[in-house]
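Two entries, shown back to back:
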Amino acid sequence: QVRLVESGGGLVQAGGSLRLSCAASGLTFSGYSMGWFRQALGKEREFVAAIDWSGSLTKYADSVKGRFTISRDNAKNTLYLQMNTLKPEDTAVYYCGADRSYSRLAVFVVCDYWGQGTQVTVSS
């Protein structure tokens, strides 16, 4: 059974930082591209960042470029999202996703597997 478990969310003031983690099990982690997505209250889920299986290819939404960094540790089956200079508009539930296709994940926001999400709240 595939499980993706996010952690690291919380309440932070604007300008602060958080590091999200996504622990994967039940799949060959290095065989999957991974991504972070978010859904704010009343809005659709949107793409945040993606990384290919090797970590050599990454993509970011324009809204987070230069502030967020996606990374992975294949030895630990874990995906990360370092979020700096957080803004109130970053408030959302953040989800990690796994897919065998980098383009499907990064372009079409489609994933084979999803985590349950972690809440990030940025106060002004």
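entry 2 starts here
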Amino acid sequence: VQLVESGGGLVQAGGSLRLSCVASGRTFSDYAMGWFRQAPGKEREFVAAISWRGGITAYADSVTGRFTISRDNAKNTVYLQMNSLKPEDTAVYYCAADRFGTDSLKKRPDYWGQGTLVTVSS
């Protein structure tokens, strides 16, 4: 599976961004999808995940209520809508895919994208 992210950029605190990740190479609906992020000097961390058909979602506590993950299987695309952004959300955001579901994805995804940078200014 090849994953290509887009939608990152510079935004002021309190603003919004929507990240997109387009998948190719396999049947998209066979994979749970998710987002991770890595801030400068920190380890990569889980952000959000969504099951094959979108019926199950999971979020990190730090983004619950502000971020929403969704997917469009007809477009082979997963989205991350980010609202009320904070400077501490600044990171490279990575799209991820896993054949075995959201719990497996949260631990060790099968596939990674190259990442897109999100910078939130104060």
